[in-house]
Amino acid sequence: MYEKDGEKYFIVDSHMHYWNAAPDNWVPGAEQYAKGWIECFHAYQSLGPKETHWPIEKFQKYSEDDLMKDVFEDGHVDVAIFQPTYLKEWYKEGFNTTERNALMGEKHPGKFIYNTRWDPRDGDEGLGHLRKNVERFGSKGVKVYTAEWNAGSRGWKLTDPAAYRYLEACQELGIKNIHAHKGPTIWPLDKDGFDVMDVDRAASDFPDLNFIVEHVGLPRIEEFCFMATQEPNVYAGLSVVIGALMHARPRFFAKVMGELLFWVGEDKMTFGSDYGIWEPKWQVEGFVDWEMPDAEEFSDYPRLGTAGKRKILGLNAAKLYDIQVPAEFRVPAQAGTPAAREDAQLVDDKSQPVTGA
Amino acid sequence: MSQGSPGGSSPRAILRALETVRDPELDKPITSLGFVASCTVSADGDARVRLRLPTYFCAPNFAFLMVADTYEAVAGTPGVRSAAVVLEDHFASDSINAGVAARAGFVASFDGEAAAELDELRAQFLRKAVMAGTDQVCRPLLASGITPERLRELTLADVPPSRELDRLRQRRAELGVPAGDDALLLIDPETGAGVTADAVPLHLRRARVTQVGIEANTSMCAGMLAHRYPAANGGLREVRDPGGPEV
Questions:
Q1: Torsion region of B79: left, alpha or beta (phi above 0 gives left; psi -120 to 50 gives alpha)
Q2: What is the structure's pLDDT at A273?
């Protein structure tokens, strides 16, 4: 819970991690990838305020106490959603598995939601694991990382027939939320790995599932925006947007927020700290204080008020995950500003995407 | 600074050539992005260029394009006898460096992992560059009071000269869509055709979000590069003339 100027905010951190990327967990022969991955994450942390930077040793493997303090005690978070990332080709026990998250979370009842994951290339065996994880951890959501390496393959798409089997299984098992994260590699390598158009098709074909595109499809913000406008079940996961831009590049942050508010709207944007990349405290406090600048270049972007900030910081994710929110934090049903519907209609009517992605 | 030995070349000449090499995604020269780590040339004209990127996992297809384009630019610089280009600290450095040195193409460099060369990928990002450039050219016009309806009728010759306009024309020519004086300012970069009146507002909005995306990505890449190479400050680590001073 965060309170500022008499306004109370219920905070759901919908995208955070508890990883072990220390050398003791590196797969022999793949050390360079394990090291490269965590160093890349660490570089992202450098885009947050200086006083929140960690030395690489702590960043590789932070403790349970660090997490509880940073996220709940100092970070204002009420409920945190673990998003696992396995990367077992590089990390012996996985980078950040459902089991590791749950083992920690079980000691703190009511604080965490355990999402699980799947990889369509794992076939029947993977489907079995998914089923077990849902039974064991009560998962209502999954994180899928399309650029993960797996037995010689460098990635996959949500439209692969094998992925559709898993999406069908999600529907059967009661999983509602698919958090999709795009990355640089995919088969074949000559295609753009970051392309989000497979999410578009999957979202149309599975209207009962919600697709939360993490990092708003970065670096393909424009493709994501065109797509999210057309699909009622596509959401913008703000992890990285706030963490990487709000402090380091406030002008670009305002522009990206303006575009998201215009195309996607405040009802379909969710806060995620991406902890341990960034601590939630400065992100929550800074976001509550943030206002669209007055300069001409921002003049035709929608404004974000208190109701919209409440939705983005917690209420939207609470709705996706059936989290009970006390009445004092809620907003009236019609409060705030949805995305411009007439423009959404224009996109619907246009059959050919301009950028041809 | 000296111009190198007679018959040879100079790092400065090579750097000038490298200004034509762009990150296809960010649409900016690798020289201004700080991706050129070092550039040296021997008295005999043997040129060595080292490139670096913001992360170990930057997309391998874009990395390949930049290394290959760098090789072409260096090899084409007058006075260069041999060119060697090396990408440092990248997960696919070995495949890319060997493939570019052998002039093997992308498919051969990533045996079994790629289905086609990168021409379509390049065109895809040129279309984005054209959309983003359209925003850069149109926003000042709109701010000066020109209506969206009027923008639709303007040809490239009607637009006051600017660096942004030059760049837009250059990208359009590269993409193979109309770029001459009589070409319309607003076109669909897929087809080169004009934009219908009712599609103009959306076209401009799309142009704008494309430009915002490129700006945001560029700013993040710059931040990551500065963290990865703290001494870089966006500049060169080392530029050497044969026997000359570093610049």
A1: left
A2: 98
Q: Is A253 left (phi over 0), alpha (psi -120 to 50) or beta?
A: alpha
A53-84 residue pLDDT tens: 999 999 999 999 999 999 999 999 999 999 99
Inter-chain residue contact B127 with A46, CB threshold 8 Å: no
User: What 3-state DSSP class applies to A41?
Assistant: helix
Per-residue buried b or exposed e for A68-85, using 16+ beta carbons within 10 Å of the residue's own CB: bebbbeebbbbbbbbbbb
The CATH class given to the B11-117+224-240 domain equals alpha beta
Give the separation between CA B235 and CA B73, rounded to whole angstroms.
Answer: 19
Banded model confidence at residue B236, pLDDT cuts 50, 70, 90: low
B110 Cβ under 8 Å from any chain A Cβ:
yes
CB pairs under 8 A between A and B: 152
**pLDDT per residue over B13-33, tens digit each?**
999 999 999 999 999 999 999
Is B148 an 8 Å CB contact of chain A? no
Residues 6+ apart with CB under 8 A from A208: A171, A176, A233
pTM for the whole structure: 0.93
The confidence band for B88, taking pLDDT boundaries of 50, 70 and 90, is very high
| Domain range summary for chain B, segments of one domain joined by + | 11-117+224-240, 119-195
- Confidence (pLDDT) at B9: 87
Gap between the Cα atoms of A77 and A70, Å rounded: 9
Task: Write the CB contacts of A69 (distance below 8 Å, at least 6 apart in sequence).
Answer: none
Mean pLDDT in chain B? 92
Q: Is B57's Cβ below 8 Å from some Cβ in A?
A: yes
**Residues near B166 by beta carbon (within 8 Å), at least 6 away in sequence:** none
Are A221 and B117 within 8 A, CB to CB?
Answer: no
Shortest Cα distance, chain B CAs vs residue A296, angstroms: 9
Q: Which residues of A35-62 are buried (b: 16+ CB within 10 A; e: fewer)?
A: bbbbbbbbbbbbbbeeeeebeeeebbbb
A151 vs chain B: nearest CA distance in angstroms? 13
Greater model confidence, A188 or A345: A188
How do beta strands A234-237 and A210-214 pair? parallel
With a cut of 80, say whether residue B243 has pLDDT above it.
no
Question: Closest approach of chain B CAs to the CA of A67, in angstroms?
Answer: 24
Instruction: Kindly indicate the confidence band of residue A333, based on its pLDDT and cuts at 50, 70 and 90.
Output: confident
CA angle A341, A304, A48 (to 5 degrees): 120
List of chain B residues whose C-beta atoms are within 8 Å of the C-beta of residue A190 = 61, 106-107, 114-118, 120-121
Put simply, the answer to whether B188 touches A185 (Cβ < 8 Å) is no
CB within 8 Å of chain A, chain B residues 159-178: none
Owner of token pair 């295609």: A191
pLDDT the model gives residue B2: 42
> What is the band of A352 on the pLDDT scale with cuts at 50, 70, 90?
very low
CB contact under 8 A, B215 and A355: no
The answer to whether A351 touches B190, Cβ cutoff 8 Å, is: no
Supply B160's token pair: 């006051």
Q: What architecture does CATH give domain A2-349?
A: Alpha-Beta Barrel (3.20)
